[in-house]
């Protein structure tokens, strides 16, 4: 055990300090570059699951001012940030997981594997990985689960924008192929309009048959509980950063 005077200092990253503070603190302690990872479409019963990883340049806070959780941005704002992120990001990768793979592996496992593939798809290995909400192993790099990460860390928010805009565009394309479901309107989530279309037309190949509402309409297999993406806690806690590479 190291004597007290040799132990690395700890830095408290407060949620109120801004969405770039956690990334800046990690980089200042030699743990960068920092990649944020997030997904879109986890709770949808149709369409792909899309996962993105993104590394932002440390000096771009002003150029990306207003960047936050993609779900809180209007569609026009998401598109604007999407193009800004593509132009300004130091690195990014987007992974698309089709519905058949989600059914085969389960949505949670598919999501975790998508996160690993997204980080592995970056041009250079990051020094640290931030995930939104729950811990993920297997990045080959130290990582931290940040509750409400897309509200707390700019790089996670950037990943959420890349994932959501990519997926929303794919759902608009699916709407042209399967207009009876109105995918462009609800993006594959369980809305009354979508449920009514399922009841009338049955599922199409782009639906996730492992989800209970799709399986019950298709009359296939046993009922499997629908997994929703709403497990984040209400508060955004402070995060302590250890200069030796440990966070708590």
Question: Would you kindly provide a written description of the structure presented here, covering whatever features stand out?
Answer:
With 248 residues, the protein is α/β, with parallel strands linked by helices. Helix content is 37%, strand content 15%. The strands form two sheets. A five-stranded mixed β-sheet has the order 4-3-2-5-6. A hairpin with an 8-residue loop joins strand 2 (34-40) and strand 3 (49-55). It has helices spanning 21-28, 75-88, 99-105, 107-120, 149-152, 154-177, 183-186, 192-201, 212-218; strands spanning 10-13, 34-40, 49-55, 91-97, 128-132, 143-146, 239-242. The model is unreliable at 220-248 (pLDDT under 50). It contains nine helices and seven strands; from the N terminus they run βαββαβααββαααααβ. The protein is globular.
Q: Which band does the percent of strand residues land in? A: 15-25%
- Indicate the structural class: alpha/beta
N- to C-terminal distance: 19 Å
Number of strands: 7
**Alpha-carbon Rg, integer:** 19 Å
The major β-sheet equals: 5 strands, mixed
Q: Would you kindly provide a brief summary of this structure?
A:
This protein has 248 residues and is an alpha/beta fold. It has helices at 21-28, 75-88, 99-105, 107-120, 149-152, 154-177, 183-186, 192-201, 212-218, and strands at 10-13, 34-40, 49-55, 91-97, 128-132, 143-146, 239-242.
């Amino acid at each position: 055990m190291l004597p007290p005077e040799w132990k690395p200092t700890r830095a408290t990253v407060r949620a109120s300090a801004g969405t770039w503070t956690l990334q800046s603190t990690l980089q200042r302690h030699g743990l960068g570059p920092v990649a944020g990872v997030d997904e879109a479409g986890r709770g949808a019963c149709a369409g792909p699951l899309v996962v993105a990883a993104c590394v932002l340049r440390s000096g771009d806070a002003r150029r990306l001012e207003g960047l936050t959780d993609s779900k809180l941005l209007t569609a026009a704002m998401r598109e604007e940030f999407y193009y800004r992120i593509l132009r300004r990001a130091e690195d990014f990768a987007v992974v698309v997981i089709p519905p058949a793979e989600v059914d085969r592996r389960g949505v949670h496992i598919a999501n975790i594997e998508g996160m690993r593939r997204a980080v592995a798809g970056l041009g250079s290995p990051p020094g640290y990985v931030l995930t939104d909400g729950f811990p993920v192993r297997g990045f080959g790099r130290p990582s931290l689960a940040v509750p409400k990460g897309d509200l707390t860390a700019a790089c996670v928010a950037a990943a959420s924008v890349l994932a959501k805009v990519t997926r929303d565009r794919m759902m608009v394309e699916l709407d042209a192929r399967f207009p009876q479901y109105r995918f462009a309107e609800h993006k594959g989530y369980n809305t009354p309009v979508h449920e009514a279309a399922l009841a009338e037309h049955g599922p199409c190949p782009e639906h996730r048959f492992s989800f209970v509402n799709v399986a019950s309409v298709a009359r296939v297999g046993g009922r499997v509980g629908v997994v929703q993406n709403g497990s984040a806690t209400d508060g955004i806690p402070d995060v302590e950063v250890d200069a030796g590479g440990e966070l708590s």
